[in-house]
Amino acid sequence: EGDCFSDDIGSAPTMIQSNFGSVGNFEVLARRGDRLCHWFRDNDPGSSSDWAKTVCFGQNIDSAPAMIQSRLGLKGNFEVVVKEENQLCHYWRANDEALLPWRKTSCFARGASSAPALVQSASGFYGNFEVVVRQGDRLCHYWRANDLPTQPWREGDCFADKVSSAPTLIQSNVGTPGNLEVLVRQEGQLCHWWRDGTTNVWSRSTCETG
């Protein structure tokens, strides 16, 4: 039997395994009330393996979060994108600093209507952040140019229609430098979309039912 921890959780969680500790801690974020809260589990030998809460942050959160550990910073910062009211907002944890502070940078994607999906891609020297989110009944792509000093969020293309779920997103090793791959529900079907890494064009491959 596994462990249960915390209560009053208001969203699906997101989880990664970080590079903290010799084995790598589990790191979890979930919405509690209108804020995001962070828990971790120390997986090192000899640890209690108990889940520990650190801090809650943000305000007016109304979706599940998306989290990665990025390649920015020496340790690798935690990066989070989450919906606040009708837009997406970006938070990050400075893992090179002793107090591990969470900070908010900017908001974008006004009109967002689902939880986002987030990856760090191979585009650019540092690797852009890539986000896909539902807006109305379509999917829209945003990206942050991490090579530029101001690291602006930019709007890409919108694609698909009759979308009725939040998307999931990866960068695959298919194509050069690796296609973005999205799965989402459309009219009761699970549909696969992909973006060619050379032309940056989104295409639908197949849909599955049953």
Description:
- The protein is mainly beta and 210 residues long.
- Helix content is 0%, strand content 48%.
- It is built from no helices and 16 strands.
- It has strands at residues 14-17, 26-32, 35-41, 51-57, 66-69, 78-84, 87-93, 102-108, 117-120, 129-135, 138-144, 153-159, 168-171, 180-186, 189-195, 202-208.
- Strand 5 (66-69) and strand 6 form a beta hairpin.
Largest sheet: 4 strands, antiparallel
Termini separation comes to 31 Å
Number of helices: 0
User: Percent of residues in helical segments?
Assistant: under 10%
Q: Helix/strand-derived class? A: mainly beta
| Strand numbers in spatial order across the main sheet | 1-2-3-4
Outline? globular
Portion in strands: over 45%
The ordered H/E elements are: EEEEEEEEEEEEEEEE
Low-confidence stretches: none
The overall pLDDT, averaged over residues, is: 95
Please give the oligomerization state of what you see.
single chain
Rg, please? 17 Å
The overall strand count is 16
In short:
The protein is mainly beta. The protein has strands at residues 14-17, 26-32, 35-41, 51-57, 66-69, 78-84, 87-93, 102-108, 117-120, 129-135, 138-144, 153-159, 168-171, 180-186, 189-195, 202-208.
